[in-house]
From TrEMBL, chain A:
Residues 22-231 form the MacB-like periplasmic core domain. Residues 266-380, 475-570 form the ABC3 transporter permease C-terminal domain. It comes from Streptomyces smaragdinus. It is found in: Cell membrane. The keyword ATP-binding does not apply. Residues 104-124 are annotated as: Disordered. Belongs to the ABC-4 integral membrane protein family. This is ABC transporter permease.
UniProtKB/TrEMBL annotation, chain B:
Residues 9-242 form the ABC transporter domain. GO terms for molecular function: ATP binding; ATP hydrolysis activity; transmembrane transporter activity. The lineage of its organism: Bacteria, Bacillati, Actinomycetota, Actinomycetes, Kitasatosporales. PANTHER family: IMPORT ATP-BINDING PROTEIN. It is an enzyme of class 3 (hydrolase). This is Putative ABC transporter ATP-binding protein YknY. One of its GO terms (cellular component) is membrane protein complex. It comes from Streptomyces smaragdinus. Gene3D superfamilies: P-loop containing nucleotide triphosphate hydrolases.
């Protein structure tokens, strides 16, 4: 009990004493956990959403479309097949245009009556079901048209009130939901439901098509079902389109074909940036943790107590941040990975695998943070830890000899870099992740500029916009985290090199040269980082997208911008530290 | 732990070296020492003579290269970290020149910490800390952080912390090194009270006047014992009080 109280006091006081550091730690782990959750969510989000929608709407396993004006005989024959459990329809449907807010969009209009069919019962999500003179708009299509219940739309030129919105698993999400198209090339479009009478009246001379939905005893036995029907003579030789539910799922999944790689790759890059943040924080904490371990040893704490205390503190923060990340990722997932409003969203509790992955991440972060100081507390002398907060200085006689010929700023900067190679790796990794993501974004804009109008405008614009928004959101998050990392690394470099740089000042180095030296120490590893990150970003984009390369001028401007940002963000903490009077610094460090 | 009987502290052929070959440094070189229970021993000598190293070896903060260390009849030089931690918790109290208090804990919480680590209940630890704060004259500073205390006050907190588990021996490394005359006087008065109460105390100091307050003075030079004397009558606590001004 007493030891628990002691540990809790130390944890609480440390957190309160360093709130900024605590917040940064929480932020980094939260971002990493969110990225992980989103990355995992992309794996089965569409499948889950489609499965939910199928279950909620008695979605068909097979959707059959025929131009035969009276397929009642086929339906009867279908019902008698042993592997068929239920049949819905036939429903009349025809191809038309739906207009709202000055826009006119291709759509299928399906006629329904008030009865509940055995298969495909669209789920009304707002308003009510069809009634004479009223139209129900598929929810994803309604969002695209920006219409709600009570608004008025035109169907084939005739104005009608929107009496409801609904979703159905018998069609792909907008813009792949026009299932009333007959033979010939198909077009993108939406879906609306009318009363059967209204649909036939609006169709006029258009013969339209008939939709028949089939539920099988074994929903997975859809493969070759259409061929078997033809072989058995259940359906005629004329135009008879057979669509399996797996085809619809594949179509829905295509809606996020751009966002999925963005989230997976962007999530990985975000995780890299978060690791840079955590490592930079851990580096800053090392001296303090070592000293604290030594102080605890002096008053009788053993290695186990010290390790448990450190681990408890890191675990407390990582578990909290992981919970935040899981929640944020779970809430954000539907916005990023749901193909459209046409499906029930996936905002549900994270899967056990996701939780386990996030907990493994938390344990890894906590263990990594605690293990270093704990091991040092066990292995190294308490006396030394008390006397000096464990600054492992490295001596590079050859480097010193070579850099002696360099200008002062470069000399100091290179030597600073050589003393802290780990931090150089962090700065390089952070710059590489940022450069990769920015390059991918530039490649996407380049591809967009070269894309055919069909992808940029019209129905498919939905998918293009979604990909662009996701890419931009991930890039901005990454840039924000990288900015934080650069300031953090610059600050810790300035703090840890304060004594050495102050001695340099007493020997004649100007504050300007000291600031430049710190910038050099950050810029030198950032240059190879950018040099590696840009081709990596391009390669990743090519891997998941198309082989478009942004103009050289864009890439050069991006590289220059990243490096200028690194220099500017480092200069600020460096300038703050170089303003302290040398005597004061030397006195406080002695 | 090997158990036996004898003085509060005993060192036999105690040696601590650093480096190897030509760069070998003998910080402590075959020191033999016995400190009877209740004695105040001052270890003096020039800078770098091995005073602090000797103290750290006696308290189990550092491991000797050779020789033996016995604390209250138990041999401790071969103990592992876990056993040494238990030993420091129960039998040794440290006082440092730089205080080494936990910055984030209040004065009372710093004093309670070793008691809590030793398994005392929170109430017991709190009671003991309150008693010790009263004893060192800081009852009204219990909730203050170390940064809100003067150097002398911090050192008094450190002494109270060293005493909270009623240790066999208190080891003080330059306890007045960072203090002004008035604060030094307060600390020495406190040590005088400890001695009167029968507390075994070993303090390292380079200040001859502080050393003169002890029962016995051990002078080190180049890691070896150069002299082992007892101050003349009238020294000890009396000397400290006379030194007041």
């Amino acid at each position: 009990m007493g030891q628990l109280l002691a540990a809790w006091r130390l944890i609480r006081r440390d957190l309160r004493r360093h709130p900024g550091e605590t917040l940064l730690f929480l932020l980094a782990v939260t971002v990493a956990a969110t990225a992980l959750t989103l990355g995992v969510a992309t794996d089965d989000a569409v499948t889950t959403a489609y499965a939910k929608t199928r279950a909620a709407t008695a979605g068909p396993d097979i959707l059959m479309t025929t131009t035969d004006p009276d397929p009642a005989d086929y339906v009867e024959r279908l019902r008698r097949i042993p592997e068929v459990r239920a049949v819905g329809g036939p429903f009349f449907a025809y191809d038309t245009t739906v207009g709202a807010h000055g826009r006119s969009v291709h759509a299928g209009a399906e006629g329904r009556d008030g009865t509940r069919p055995a298969v495909d019962r669209p789920l009304v999500t707002s308003g009510g079901w069809v009634r004479p003179g009223g139209v129900v708009v598929e929810r994803g299509f309604a969002r695209e048209l920006e219409v709600r219940v009570g608004d008025r739309v035109t169907v084939g030129g005739r104005e009608m009130p929107v009496v409801g919105t609904a979703i159905s698993a018998a069609t792909g999400v907008y813009p792949w939901s026009d299932r009333a198209q007959g033979p010939g090339p198909s077009d993108w479009g939406g879906m609306v439901w009318l009363t059967d009478e209204d649909a036939r009246a609006l169709a006029g001379d258009d013969p339209g098509v008939r939709l028949i939905q089939v539920k099988l005893a074994d929903p997975d036995a859809t493969d070759g079902f259409g061929d078997r029907l033809r072989e058995r003579g259940v359906v005629p030789d004329g135009w008879f389109n057979v669509l399996r539910w797996q085809n619809i799922l594949r179509t829905d999944t295509a809606m996020i074909q751009g966002t999925r790689p963005t989230l997976v790759v962007g999530g990985t890059l975000l995780a890299v940036a978060a690791i840079v943040t955590l490592t930079a924080l851990a580096v800053g904490r090392t001296a303090r943790d070592n000293r604290r371990a030594a102080l605890l040893k002096v008053v009788g704490a053993g290695p186990g107590t010290i390790t448990a205390g450190l681990l408890a503190q890191y675990l407390l923060l990582t578990v909290l941040a992981t919970a935040l990340g899981l929640t944020a990722g779970t809430l954000a997932a539907p916005h990023f990975v749901d193909p459209s409003d046409g499906l029930l969203n996936t905002a549900s509790a994270p899967a056990p695998g996701t939780v386990l992955s996030a907990l493994a991440l938390a344990a890894a972060v906590a263990g990594t943070g605690a293990i270093g100081p704990a091991l040092r507390a066990t292995r190294f002398s308490t006396v030394h830890a008390l006397a000096d907060p464990a600054h492992l200085l490295t001596h590079h006689p050859r480097l010193n000899a070579v850099t002696a010929y360099l200008p002062t700023s470069l000399l100091l900067g290179v030597r600073l870099l050589a003393r802290r190679p780990g931090r150089a790796v962090l700065a390089g990794a952070g710059a590489a992740a940022t450069a990769a993501m920015i390059t991918a974004l530039l490649a996407w804009y380049t591809a967009l500029a070269a894309a055919p109008d069909a992808l940029r405008f019209g129905p498919l614009e939905v998918r293009t916009d979604r990909t662009g928004q996701t890419l931009l959101a991930v890039t901005l998050t990454l840039v924000a985290l990288s900015t934080l990392n650069t300031v953090l690394l610059g600050w810790s470099t300035a703090v840890q090199a304060r004594r050495a740089l102050t001695i340099s000042r007493t020997l004649g180095a100007t504050p300007g040269q000291v600031v430049t030296a710190l910038c050099v120490a950050q810029l030198l590893p950032a240059v190879p980082g950018v040099a590696v990150g840009m081709p990596a970003g391009l390669g990743l984009y090519w891997l998941f997208g198309e082989t478009y390369t942004p103009p050289a001028s864009w890439l050069l401007a991006a590289a220059a911008g990243i490096l200028a940002a690194v220099a500017a963000l480092t200069a600020l903490p460096a300038w703050v530290h170089s303003r302290s009077p040398a005597a004061g610094v030397l006195h406080s460090e002695s | 732990m090997t158990t036996g009987t004898g003085p509060a502290l005993r060192a036999v052929g105690l040696t601590r070296t650093y480096g190897a070959g030509e760069s070998l440094v003998r910080a402590v070189d075959h020191v033999d020492l016995e400190v009877p229970a209740g004695q105040t021993l001052a270890v003096t000598g020039p800078s770098g003579c091995g005073k602090s190293t000797l103290l750290q070896l006696l308290g189990g903060l550092d491991r000797p290269t050779g020789g033996e260390v016995w604390l209250g009849g138990d041999r401790i030089d071969h103990l592992g970290e876990r056993a040494l931690a238990r030993l420091r918790r129960r039998s040794v109290g440290f006082v440092f020149q730089a205080y080494h208090l936990m910055h984030e804990l209040s004065a009372a919480q710093n004093i309670e910490l070793p008691a809590l680590l030793a398994g005392a209940s929170p109430r017991t630890a709190r009671d003991r800390a309150a008693g010790l704060l009263d004893r060192v004259g800081l009852a009204d500073r219990a909730r203050h952080l170390p940064s809100e205390l003067s150097g002398g006050q911090r050192q008094r907190v450190a002494i109270a912390r060293a005493l909270v588990n009623d240790p066999l021996v208190v080891l003080a490394d330059e306890p007045t090194g960072n203090l002004d005359t008035a604060a030094t006087h307060d600390i020495l008065r406190l040590f005088g009270e400890l001695r009167a109460a029968g507390q075994t105390l070993v303090m390292v100091t380079h200040d001859e006047r502080v050393a003169a307050t002890a029962d016995r003075i051990l002078s080190l030079r180049d890691g070896t014992v150069a002299d082992d004397t007892r101050p003349a009558a009238g020294a000890g606590l009396g000397a400290m009080l006379a030194w007041k001004d």
